Amino acid sequence: MFAWLSGIEQCVCSHAQERSSVWDNNLEINDSYPAVPGFKDSVVLQNVEYPETLPRLRAKLPPGPRLRSVPTFRAAESETMQGEPLLIGTLMHIKLEESVQQMTVTLYANGFSMSPLVGGGSDARRVNRAWSPFSLVEKCQVKTLQHSAYWAVFKLTVFRAGGHDLCLYFACTGGNAYKERDRWVEKIGVLVSQVTRSLFPPAEIKVQPLPGIESTSTRILAGFLLQGCNMDTCQLVYAELHAYVAGEAKLTLYRDEWCDRELTTIVLSNASTVSTRSGVHCNVFGIDHHRFCARDADEKELWLRAVSNVKVKLMFEAPDPTSEDGKGQRYTRH
Q: Does domain 214-329 have CATH number 2.30.29.30?
């Protein structure tokens, strides 16, 4: 499954350990980090003297990670499957222009396994793979196979940075092939969606700037996104879309919702490419060569609508928005 790569060897979806063991609610008050996003001033007690023997002042702060690092996850190919099988059956694994092989495919909460049937040869072995949020499952039309009416093919695509996507083709066979395919496609989509949601914190989309953080004054949409990285990894970033100014706009990526540690900025112009793929529970979209995954389909559509609207403004060289225009551009989730 996806695991923290910052020294915490714990599955994201595992229920064996309480989540509170990773989060600390009893942090000391100091001037390292703000207690509320947008207010950087530390707590200061004026004109009061305390004996040095008194213990250091402590208080409750909002739950947060002990280390403010960027959460990073990876879809491991050798991941141990968890829980009971949720769906098991025999599918044809199609390698384009190579071979067609019968496989026993088993779906689990955190991934799936493939095992060749008896007689698979010396290379026959069980293969496990964790679900990736950057996945697309879709039905395929096949017209070149003999007896194609008894073959129902679907494709699982795992998007990777650099364009080296993983594509797996499967086929259900028999008189109920199409009905069986629908069942497999729907189940895979649901499981990928559940894993994706488990990687996001319980935070809502924001449209208002943060008080005291000038860099957020032109914000029109902000929220958490997964950003695709190399080697089947992704990181959880806080993205903030800004209004266009002087012929360009920007999408700023922060370490977290405090918006005081910028990771990178993606410049949007009238030539920027905004892309997405339609499929079952596919929450992936792209801006130029950057790939992102939203929490769910509603949030993906919200991001696409906001980014596309900004691009249209840039294409038609719309005048820079005033402060009142900026308020009107902000988006809400219905």
A: yes
Contacts 24+ apart (CB under 8 A), 160-166: 160/134, 160/228, 160/230, 160/232, 161/228, 161/229, 161/230, 161/291, 162/230
Per CATH, which fold does 87-198 belong to?
PH-domain like (2.30.29)
What is the pTM assigned to this prediction? 0.76
Burial class (CB in 10 A: 0-12, 13-18, 19+), 231: exposed
Examine the pLDDT at 42 and tell me if it is beyond 50: no
Under 8 Å between Cβ of 296 and 304: no
Q: Report which listed range, 116-125, 205-214, 272-281, is most confident.
A: 205-214
Which residues, 6+ apart, have CB-to-CB distance to 221 below 8 Å? 205, 206, 207, 240, 241, 302, 303, 306, 330, 331
- The single residue listed with the structure tokens 């992102």 is 292
Q: Quote the CA–CA distance of 124 and 93 in Å, as a whole number.
A: 13
